[in-house]
Write a structure and sequence with these properties.
Blueprint: E1 3-11, E2 14-24, E3 27-30, H1 62-69, H2 76-89, E4 92-95, E5 102-106, H3 116-130, E6 133-144, E7 147-155, E8 159-161, E9 164-166, H4 173-185, E10 197-207, E11 227-235, E12 241-245, E13 248-254, H5 255-258, H6 262-270, H7 272-275, E14 280-283
Length: 286
């Protein structure tokens, strides 16, 4: 029996993307306004009422971009020389189109805390038993309109976070991040084992006290920080299946939206564009 659903998402009070979904007897399939051949069939048995995706439909105009870069224009030889210098010193990250990926849903994953105060109180209890909290989070990149987007999980209507979470005592950072990614985004099917390729650590943040404030350094007067959070870039394959808990939304947010937007995303996520500036993005079209 065919089922059709339409997910309509808005960001900053403007409609970004509407994705119609079809599911048939042979297995769910994601469809949108792109060439269907560019998408994969989802895993058999995967509920195909996908989490909502947000993608920027409008990039800055050429005039605006030109103003940001200055009125001068590099010669063709100068551009080639600049590209050569960048490629020789910068790590390369392949970024694939959002349309390459298939998204579905799975059972809800409820939050352990109902408020920030509860979360900080639980952190204090765990600190007394286990010591400093260590957490890891993933930066997953896709592209839309030839511009990098970061995948974020949205809880409720306003709070966004990177996929990841707290490590178990003594757990390896890489293995712990893979475990968290499986919990948050992997399909619950042995037929589609995830292939998480964990890359470089791009940022380290410290929580000095049982408060919401975090810093990209440990203040010198703090001898016993309460949390260390590390952000890793995760290299996605050309095609992937994602399954998101039904109580969460998956957003694809462009770098220009994140940049310096502390009020909306907080200091950790809003500084990701700066953290990624040393990487060279290879926009792979399909």
């Amino acid at each position: 029996m065919d089922r059709t659903a339409s997910i309509h998402v808005s960001l900053l009070s403007r409609t970004i993307l509407s994705i119609p979904i079809n599911a048939d007897a042979t297995g769910p399939k994601l469809e949108c306004d792109r060439d269907p051949s560019s998408l994969l069939n989802a895993a058999p048995g995967l509920t195909q009422r996908p989490s909502s995706l947000v993608s920027a439909s409008t990039l800055p105009s050429p005039a605006t971009a030109g103003a940001r870069q200055g009125s001068g224009k590099l010669s063709e030889a100068g551009e080639k020389e600049e590209e050569k210098m960048v490629s020789s010193s910068s790590p390369v990250v392949n970024v694939y189109p959002l349309a390459n990926y298939t998204f579905g849903t799975k059972e809800p994953k409820m939050e352990k805390d109902t408020s920030v105060a509860d979360r900080l109180a639980r952190m204090k209890v765990n600190y007394m038993k286990e010591g400093m909290r260590t957490s890891v989070e993933a930066i997953l990149l896709v592209q839309e309109h030839n511009h990098p987007h970061i995948l974020l999980l949205q809880i409720g209507n306003t709070f966004c976070k990177l996929p990841g979470g707290r490590l178990k005592p003594g757990e390896n950072e890489i293995e712990g991040l893979k475990r968290k990614l499986c919990s948050k985004l992997a399909v619950n099917s042995p037929s589609f084992p995830p292939n998480w390729q964990i890359g470089e650590c791009v940022a380290v943040w410290w929580r000095p006290n049982f408060e919401t404030v975090m810093y990209p350094y440990c203040p010198p007067h703090i001898t016993k920080p309460k949390e260390c959070k590390k952000l890793f870039i995760v290299h996605l394959s050309e095609r992937e299946y994602f399954a998101v808990p039904r109580n969460l939304k998956l957003l694809a947010v462009p770098l220009f939206e994140l940049y310096d937007n502390v009020q909306r995303y907080g200091p950790v996520i809003s500084t990701i564009p700066q953290q990624l500036s040393r990487f060279q993005f290879n926009m792979v079209s399909s």
